[in-house]
């Protein structure tokens, strides 16, 4: 059949065919790129309704605070990781509530239920200022607080420690610091494929952020959980809903750059001009601990923990079971809590 068509007519036919295909794809692509975010699940609705908002530089920041142990004045502030939210702490919230007088968590700017402004230059330093503003909002500027952090939150915690020790704004007084599976060393940090793609593809990033869907997200996040400690479909959907809330997927490339470049001691040391680990060493009243899931592909074992123990010699360390990966507080809440309580009750 095609042999009987003149070459010029065949070329015109193919051009028309591709034009029709293109015209059909445009509305389909437009619909795909504007898929509405999933509805909040009952669990997310409950979490949100139990929290509140405060204003930071014209942006609404979500936080949750509960009062627990009677007769104690201890306060713990929980700093979540990338790309999730304060919901990361839900499995250990109630046990913490029985140990501490006040348990506080927030969604960083650009995460969870907090505002996600765009265009906006996100930074670790701004996130630290968000935490300081929350502490001031809650009237805790004179209170010694315990910081419990994970992943991205580890570097925010270290920036807060630097400010506290150098009498910077915020007046946050840190009693103890517990880190967990944060990419604080660039030489042992291995960001995931999607993170590197969003970071390195500046031209394609706006398209990639819109093309990222639940399947891509759940596959990427599932890869940083252990094979025997995978999140449920409901948990993954809640995490994705938190990302999509307030069009958060459209700013993922912005804080992906932060996550890959600014969540390291090297970056903070370049800015401050001093080895930041010296801040830990020179804080005589500070107790420091690391809880580590050794199956973590982002901060692999044993390189990460060997380097940490070498550089932070005054810190104690808890290495969890060998099948626990990057989200130890979700994968092994009992082991995580046992490690944390052993640390916090030792002083």
TrEMBL record:
Keywords: Endoplasmic reticulum, Hydrolase, Membrane, Transmembrane, Transmembrane helix. GO terms for molecular function: monoacylglycerol lipase activity. GO terms for cellular component: endoplasmic reticulum membrane. Its main location: endoplasmic reticulum. It is found in: Endoplasmic reticulum membrane. It is a multi-pass membrane protein. The chain crosses the membrane at residues 17-35. Residues 75-165 form the AB hydrolase-1 domain. One of its GO terms (biological process) is acylglycerol catabolic process. Pfam families: Abhydrolase_1. Belongs to the AB hydrolase superfamily. This is Mesoderm specific transcript. The gene is MEST.
